[in-house]
UniProtKB/TrEMBL annotation:
Keywords: Kinase, Transferase. It comes from Nothobranchius korthausae. It comes from the Eukaryota. This is TNNI3 interacting kinase. One of its GO terms (molecular function) is kinase activity.
């Protein structure tokens, strides 16, 4: 887990865009 909220948001958005992980988990 990344403590940086920005990194977490980018991670979530990245997977969300791919449609693999909508929740960014």
């Amino acid at each position: 887990y990344v403590s940086d909220p920005m990194s977490t948001m980018r991670f979530c958005t990245s997977f969300s865009s791919s449609g693999s992980f909508e929740d960014g988990t």
